[in-house]
Input
Amino acid sequence: MNRLELSLRPFKLEDNIFVKSLLKSYEVMKFALVNRVLTDEEAETFIKDHFISKPDTYGLKVLCLQEELIGFAGLLRCRYLGSDDLELGFIIDSKHQGKGYAAEIGKILICQALSDRNRVLALVHPDNTNCRKVLSEKLKMTKDQEIITPDRGARQVYIYALK
Output
């Protein structure tokens, strides 16, 4: 894969339809966020909270393969382990899964996070074997623990930390 093919860019209002289509796809959402498709209202709130209204450098961006929208990814602030951490995340359209894009964008996000932090987290549903494999094998993240989150349920926490 040519690294120049894959990019993250800021959300534009015309991306709304694509992002909503991902948030309403069972194949995409069965292990992501709340483990189900989002309602129209939930999708609007998610987009507003994570794409449009983020005042700092963290948040989600649209993931593009050349000019084609294939998902979204980014770094979000989190406190799941009791400290101010960053969580990397990616959601990729099912027709583009299994092609190495998650690993590629994950490497970019880890580098961004470590520019001002000493670790980055990734939370994954325990049944999402493909994502767990990307995190551990491709991104060299270490499984730390399993937690129950109030909004997302059971999640395995993976950490990439500077030594």
Q: What stands out?
A: The chain has a mean pLDDT of 93.
